[in-house]
Amino acid sequence: MTALAESPELALVDLLDRLLAGGVVLTGDITISLADVDLVHVSLRALISSVHTLVREAGDA
Amino acid sequence: MLTYLYAIGRVPLEPPDRPGVDAEPPRVIVEDGFAAVVGSVAPARFDEAALAHDLEDLRRVEELARAHHRLVAALPGDGPVAPVRLATIYRDDDGVRRLLRERATELGALLDRLGTCREWGVKMWSPPRPAADAQPVPADAERPGTSYLMRRRAARDADAHRRAQGTELAEHVHRTLSRLAVAARRLAPQDAVLSGRTEEMLLNTTYLVRREDEAAFTAAVAGAGASGAEIVRTGPWPPFSFATVDDP
């Protein structure tokens, strides 16, 4: 689909802008009924904050 | 095995020749005219506990994000494809089939809306602050305190002016590009640590653009770059930022 898909310069920050905040969300953080039945649910909000924390820690080290 | 969902399109849709997030070969689940691109992934690495642990590790997140993106980006572009959010995992294929049946209306509407449009990102930063003020206030030898304050004020005014000009230019660029796009979205300003840029980010926007408008769109971005501010275009991306359905 995209010409730049294999580009090594694809910056992680641009990728995360889209991969963590975009894409069809098939269950929300609150909609747990579906998740309980058949969806493994990962809270992406928690993920994003952990990414920031990790990067800061790496920067401090 | 668990079923990792990458993207949803319409039949016929061939799985791409790229390994997935668990190095697995992707396959397609067909239901009701929809085609879901999935992979079988190991519960040891992709159940809730394993993911919760792995997603704390930025390198692991990067691996997953790159593999997920690579696979979705390799899907044929001749029909609409809706990318699914990273780490959307079902217990089995039946869960995906049920999704395709139960959400058929919204998914159909989403695919119609996306068409074969692609996503293009635009980032813009304010130009670096000039070394000297544009209009320095001459020092007054008789009143050094006053001239110091005047220089301070002139520098502050110049900063504010530059910032206002940058914002105005960014809004102008965004309006111009939005007119060439089917849809536009503002993304959060990028974290300076992740982006490695310390200048003020004036724009972090992304646009859903029809194939036939891509040439005009890229020309408009290039034109905006001639204005002095630094502008960077990324893409084409699969339409991640525009693949949204309302929760049931």
From TrEMBL, chain A:
Family listed: Belongs to the gas vesicle GvpA family.
Presence of keyword Zinc: no
Subcellular location(s) per record: Gas vesicle
A Pfam family per the record: Gas_vesicle
Superkingdom of source: Bacteria
Primary site of residence: other
GO molecular function: structural molecule activity
Protein name, UniProt field: Gas vesicle protein
Keyword tags: Gas vesicle
Annotated source species: Pseudonocardia thermophila
Keyword presence, Transmembrane helix: no
Matching InterPro entries: Gas-vesicle_GvpA-like (IPR000638), GvpA (IPR050530)
Cellular component aspect of the GO annotation: gas vesicle; vesicle membrane
UniProtKB/TrEMBL annotation, chain B:
InterPro entries for the chain: GvpL/GvpF (IPR009430)
Gene Ontology cellular-component annotations: gas vesicle
Transmembrane segments: none
Organism domain of life: Bacteria
Family affiliation: Belongs to the gas vesicle GvpF/GvpL family.
A Pfam cross-reference name: GvpL_GvpF
Subcellular location: Gas vesicle
GO BP annotation list: gas vesicle organization
Record flagged with keyword Lyase: no
Keywords, alphabetical: Gas vesicle
Protein name: Gas vesicle synthesis protein GvpL/GvpF
The keyword Signal is annotated on this UniProt entry: no
